[in-house]
Write a structure and sequence with these properties.
transferase, hydrolase, metal-binding, CNF1/YfiH-like putative cysteine hydrolases, alpha/beta, Cytotoxic_necrot_fac-like_cat, Cu_polyphenol_OxRdtase
């Protein structure tokens, strides 16, 4: 099986690289089997580094330490304008307009959102769990892009990536009440509330003005498709992490 999925919404942009990883194609043993890209796991660091090297190289990106910006995510609302590679701390969204610099987020049930502003050649990678989603981190990121790059909604293309599905994401009432009723449903058997993270994040894109025809929502679920993707909930916390990345190609170090 392939080690990554390319969102179709970005297929017309030859100078863009955007992808989300799967759990296949790596060297990690169980329970991180096999393409664990998460640094903050109990997996062997050498295995994670090799997995990351393989993932980025499969996308045509070499010298990843000089080309990738990420952050230790804290389920917060802070947005980083990345101008150089590195691992930062405290940000759950990263934006950049620097060619050859890629931004990304790690997930294993939370929602990854990738955005491309074709007019300003700027990108965003967003990590949205229930806290980030209810706090509208997607909207905040878009506003930050508007302020930083002059981004307008009409020029944006977005991918709401693979995460836990609405049938599997049972939450308590204290979480459910943070979401509009349209994003909450009762499980017919357990009568517990379930939240639709994909729909809630998609709605933030639409409210900003991104045309619905320029938004793609993943048809996969980390829980229902656990053979393809890692799921923190389905695997009781002992599992790997996927990466969702995006960036503009540069001539040096990026293969066509």
């Amino acid at each position: 099986m392939t080690s990554y999925h390319i969102p179709a919404i970005f297929s017309d942009f030859s100078d863009l690289i955007a992808a989300e990883s799967t759990r296949h194609g790596g060297v990690s043993p169980a329970p991180f089997l096999s393409l664990n890209l998460g640094i903050n796991t109990n997996d062997e660091p050498d295995s994670v580094n090799e997995n990351r090297r393989r993932f980025f190289l499969s996308l045509g990106i070499d010298d990843v330490d000089r080309r990738f910006a990420s952050s230790h995510q804290v389920h917060g609302m802070e947005v980083l304008y990345a101008t150089e590679a590195g691992r930062f701390d405290g940000y759950d969204a990263l934006i950049t307009d620097k060619p050859g610099l890629f931004v990304g987020v790690t997930v294993a049930d939370c929602t990854p959102i990738l955005i491309y502003d074709k007019a300003n050649r700027a990108v965003a990678a967003i990590h949205a769990g229930w806290r980030g989603t209810s706090g509208e981190i997607v909207a905040k990121t878009l506003i930050t892009m508007e302020q930083q790059f002059g981004t307008s909604a009409a020029n944006c293309y977005a991918y709401v990536g693979t995460c836990i599905d609405e049938c599997s994401f049972e939450v308590g009432p204290e979480v459910a009440e943070r979401f509009a009723p349209e994003f909450v449903q009762k499980d017919a058997q357990t009568l517990k509330d379930c939240v639709n993270l994909k729909a809630a994040n998609r709605q933030q894109l639409i409210r900003f003005g991104v045309p619905s025809t320029q938004i793609e929502v993943s048809s996969f679920s980390t829980v229902l498709n656990n053979d393809i993707f890692f799921s923190y909930r389905a695997e009781n916390g002992q599992t790997g992490r996927m990466l969702a990345i995006i960036g503009i190609k540069a001539i040096i170090g990026i293969k066509s």
